[in-house]
Amino acid sequence: MHQFSIITPTYNRANYLPRIYDRLCQQDDIDFEWIIVDDGSTDNTKEVVSQFRETFEIKYIYQENAGQVSALNTGTKNTNSYITNKHDDDDILCPHVLKQVWEYFNFDSKKFKHDCACLAGLCQYETGDIIGNKFPDDYIVSDYIRYIKNNNIRGDKCEFYLTDVLRKYPFPIMGKEKNIAPSIVHIRIALSHKTLYMNKVFQEKQFLSDGLSTKNYWIMYPLGSELYCNEASVPPFSFKLQAKYSGEYIFYARLNKKKNIYKNARNKKIFLLGITVYILFCVKLFLKRFELLQNINKKIKKILNKNNQNHPKIIRE
After folding, report:
1. Are 132 and 254 members of one domain?
2. Total domains present in the chain
3. 299 belongs to a structural domain
4. 281 lies in which domain range?
5. Tens digits of per-residue pLDDT, 80-124?
6. SS in 3 state form for the chain?
7. Is 114 a member of any domain?
8. 189-220, pLDDT tens digit by residue?
């Protein structure tokens, strides 16, 4: 059994995989496997992977295009390790980070220190700037809901999970929708397991124009959004977040034309408050669209005025 599994779901990004490979080659004195799940790529992904020297075990798995969460589930099923990291195809791990993470793993208990199921660190941009917020504490044991969500700690973080725990929490597949908010797995694990958070940079991230991070997947994948918001509308989420997610659950349930919205609500105690939040949420969306229309009209007028200036009127005698 390996110490680590690195799972990379990928779709038509063959040119980014060598960056990951080069950085993985810098993870010295560590036994790990790299699981590449090709989610139906039409580029030369397979050929690029075949050219990598196997200085560590590389598993290439091809599947018909089913979305990132399906690819992550496929990768998790094929792990053979104590610790797993889900690694996007446009990210790279910091040098020697696997060795640092392994120092916090207790081989006897097969858990991280303090009986934690996860070790989480920071991510940075290529410039070296930290993504989002640092943790308020340099070293603390808590969980994703009480620490990250309730404290409004923003920005991507890099998580290393115990493989056995991660296998118990696959991403839900919502009909034909190919993606869901990645943090739904974090909140489910947080209900039963602790995480060790530390202010150390583990990963460097890019945010490409065609990536999920640049898209509003809440609207694009409303079934998944409905599920997420319903699950996040109960304790231990803060009361403020319970109200927020209760309202958004109603919004997405109506968007999905669901019946029995009240009956299916996880938190019926604040459902009336959720309706109020839902109304405010709809007003906010309306105003955003109105503002967008105004900006479009301004741009059109600007273009028309510019064209008029470039084409002076003909004066007839």
Report:
1. no
2. 2
3. no
4. 218-286
5. 999 999 999 999 999 999 999 999 999 999 999 999 999 999 999
6. CEEEEEEEEECCCHHHHHHHHHHHCCCCCCCEEEEEEEECCCCCHHHHHHCCCCCCEEEEEEECCCCHHHHHHHHHHCCCEEEEEECCCCCEECCCHHHHHHCCEECCCCEEHHHECEEEEEEECCCCCECCCCCCCCEEEECHHHHHHCCCCCCCEEEEEEHHHHHCCCCCCCCCCCCCCCHHHHHHHHCCCCEEEEEEEEEECCCCCCCHHHCCHHHHCHHHHHHHHHHCCCCCCCHHHHHHHHHHHHHHHHHCCCCCHHHHCCCHHHHHHHHHHHHHHHHHHHHHHHHHHHHHHHHHHHHHHHHHHHCCCCCCC
7. yes
8. 999 999 999 999 999 998 766 555 545 778 89
